[in-house]
Amino acid sequence: MKKPLIALVIMMIFCISNMAFAADSSFSDLPSKHWAYDAVTKLANAGIVDGVGDGTFRGDKTMTRYEMALIVANALTKEDKANAENKALLEKLSTEFSKELSGLGVRVKNLEDKDANSLKITGVAQIRHEWTKNPRSLVPDAALGGDPYYTGQPTDKSEIRSALYVFIDKKFDSNHYFHAIIGNDSIGGDTRTDSPMEFEEAYYASKNGNFEWAAGRFAPTIGKGLLFSAPYLDGGKVSFGKDVKTTIYSGKKTDYSWLLADTQFKLNEHTSMLFAYNSDKHKEYYNSKAVGLEYTGIPNINLKGEYGVNTAVNAKAVNDGNSPKGMYIKAKYKGANPFAVGSAGAWVGYRKGDNGFDSHQYTGALSAPNNWTYPAQGSSINDVKGFEYGVEVTVAPHAMLSFIYGDLEAIKVGGDGLADKSQKFLISQLTWVF
């Protein structure tokens, strides 16, 4: 076993062993006669409180101050739906549980008002170990007009990656803001580019009712993550609509121009639907459409899936003249909250993507082996099918540990397809939110 992997395992064990220290005053019982119970019951009846944990509010159950703070944090995100009386209740609850809310990373209203025009800096850091049965080369940036970033050999089945992303947000007023992400990722200590940090996003946005426009650099995500999204685009974005919301990106990544779009809406209280589209300028590699569904009507369970087809010229060429298709479904139980030590989740998913469906193999929401090339990839759904299993748990304040195993195999082996049938992988990852 490599020394870096031994160090990573020791660190993970150390984090898990620290779960016990989370018992502080936030977990003390809230007396059954406390006024907060009546206040939250009123908010629940008004549709402002959804609940905590399993998504329900049980007024007959005695809670800890921490559990009540979770409910208040949820309610604060829906303050715009509250009338004057309920806003007053939210203000009172915010004051009562200000300590717990601060521990959860929630900024209570009076602090928001005070710091409305300040610069907010947050971020995410990750360290992960990746093992792949048969590492494969991802399509380098040269395919998009840039330079390839090869940093290893295809025999490197085991690797350490680290990443740091810093989020910068400046709100000028209620309708105008600036957002940026400065990021760096590395493999085995080797940075992704000649520059140790680069802008993943940096744009100015302006809102007017349900219409918003923005200009700058974007790291776009469309749909539920099935379709290709360029690692970043320089250009513009518009979004509009309330019950039916549409978002459109148009911009350039090196020498390629892209158009990305999605439309999302609710069919009912628990079911949402979407349509997504992406295309490069000449429809060479991508001319993809997708439809997706998400269902949240089962307590503690989230179900979602997406199905798409790519009709681009080169996509058909490597798939025996047929338009390659892709799909995935995923069922997730609960989930880890970085601000709630001990919270956890698990999921199982299935994916299938014909050869050519995502030839550049850079999609946002799915997990897959990250192999030995740069830029670091988030996933792939190209010439692959099989099941994925994952678990996650918050092991310390702001720190989540996750394990993902993919029991995947290539659909097409040899020729234009992959060289190896097995595409199994295992990822172990620690994520810090700050």
UniProtKB/TrEMBL annotation:
Stretches assigned to the SLH domain: 23-86
Pfam families with a match to the protein in the record: SLH
Keywords from the UniProt entry: Signal
InterPro entries in the cross-refs: Cell_Envelope_Struct_Comp, SLH_dom
Signal peptide: 1-22
PANTHER family assigned: OUTER MEMBRANE PROTEIN ALPHA, OUTER MEMBRANE PROTEIN ALPHA-RELATED
Protein name, UniProt field: SLH domain-containing protein
Phylogenetic lineage: Bacteria, Bacillati, Bacillota, Negativicutes, Selenomonadales
